[in-house]
Amino acid sequence: MNAVRDEAMLFNCGADELVGVLSRPEGEAGPLGVLVIVGGPQYRVGSHRQFVLLARSLASHGMGCMRFDYRGMGDSAGDVCSFESVNDDVRAAVDAFFRQVPELRRVVLWGLCDGASAACFYAPTDARVCGLILLNPWVRTAQGEAQTYLKHYYLQRLLSRAFWLKLLRGGVRLGQSLAGLSAAMKRARGGASQTQPSAGGTLPERMLADLQRAAKPALIVLSGRDYVAREFEQVCQNHPGWQRFLAANVVQHLPEVDHTFSNARQREEVASLSLNWCETLGGQI
For position 34, what pLDDT does the model report? Predict the structure, then answer.
């Protein structure tokens, strides 16, 4: 293993200054690097310091890894952008990564939750991207969310002995619960009150279209204890295009893992999966 050095970076996205951190091995880095795309209301450290630990782990094996804050997040300037509007931020980060590591030839985008979704949108726009690591991709629609909760929340509650005991003891607000169930069933059927998809289709349809345009290999990591991952699986089960995408790539299921990989063993497992998969790309660089 290599000694690792962390380097703070400042770079511009338009008129705004962004902040990043590069973890790199002492001496020369390899030709493949990993760029972490931050998801949700987070910044470059990640939940439970996952992005810090991932970057240093990859660097210790000779692979440079950069993480950064979008505009308006963490220590970066500018207005906050949606994950569907950060292509300029990602491009600025990739440019800065390549300037900082001259030996770099290709980059893998690594994203969790809506960071994975943002990676899908960026991938077809940049030939330097040679692969994607997508963890619990965010494919949320009102209908998909309702179907997921009906299948994985309400059904499990009905099958739970603890629920029935609580109901018999008067600990359940039955009227409120039935109203919630009824609303979920209406949304799951595609009720009229739902937001209409944009001209390009629903979120999962647009993500798939960009993945197909990009035609890059992908590793998909799905947590077993996570409704976001369950919703993604449900989308794939109902869509032939997503089924073909999964069949053509590598999918790893981690049964006992939550959405943010909250214990050390889980984070180490993800780092190991990421490293091993990236090493399989070596022949393509």
Answer: 98
